[in-house]
Amino acid sequence: MKYSLEIIKTDVLVFDLDGTLLQTDRANNLAYYDAIEKVIKSPPPPSINRIKRITLKDLEKIALFSDLKLKEIKNLKDSSYFKYLEYTFLNHNLFDIVLQFYQKNQIILLTNASRNRAKLLLEYHRIEKYFSHTFYNEYGNKFLNCIEFLQLNAKDMLVFENEKLQVENALCAGITKDRIIQIGDDFSNEIQIKSKRRIC
C-alpha cells in the first residue's frame, strides 16, 4: 500500500515495535520451539509449526499444555530470547522516517512487548536513543493508556502499526483513519513524505 504523508512539527509519531519497526516473528518462534522442547522433552507438535507468530494464547488452545507447563514455557522463552536476536531485522524504510524527524518531532515507541524483551531488541539494533518516549503497555488499549499517561492529543498522533486489532484500538482511542499507517507483513509499504506545510 502507498501512503503520502505531510508531517509538521506538532505531529507526534507513534511506532509499534513487533511487525512494524522490527520483524521478530522468527526469533519469537525459535525461542518458543526451544522452550516447548525443553518442557515436554520432545519436538513441538506439528500444529504449532503452522502458526505464523506463536503466542501464549495459541498454546493455551493445545490440550498438551497444562497451566503449569505454559508458565514454564513462557519463562524459558523469555530467558532464551536473547539467543535469537540475530533473526530479527529492522524495517529500514520506516526507520528512515524516525531518523528524518527524531530531532524535530516527538517520536514514541508504543508496544505491548514486555519491557525486558523490548529493551533487548532496542539495544541490539541500537535504536533506543531515537525515541522521545518508550511506552511499555501492560494491559488494555495501549493507545488510550499512552494518551492518558503522556497527556497527548489524539489528533496530533500519526500511528505506524501492523496489527488489525491494534488499528481498531487506535481508532477507539480517537485517532482518525487517515492518521494510521498500516504496515504490511513484508514491509513493502511505499511511504512518501511530502514537503511540510507552514503552520499559521
From TrEMBL:
Transmembrane segments: none
UniProt cross-references to Gene3D superfamilies, sorted A to Z: HAD superfamily/HAD-like, Putative phosphatase, domain 2
Domain of life: Bacteria
Protein name, per record: HAD family hydrolase
Organism from which the protein derives: Helicobacter winghamensis
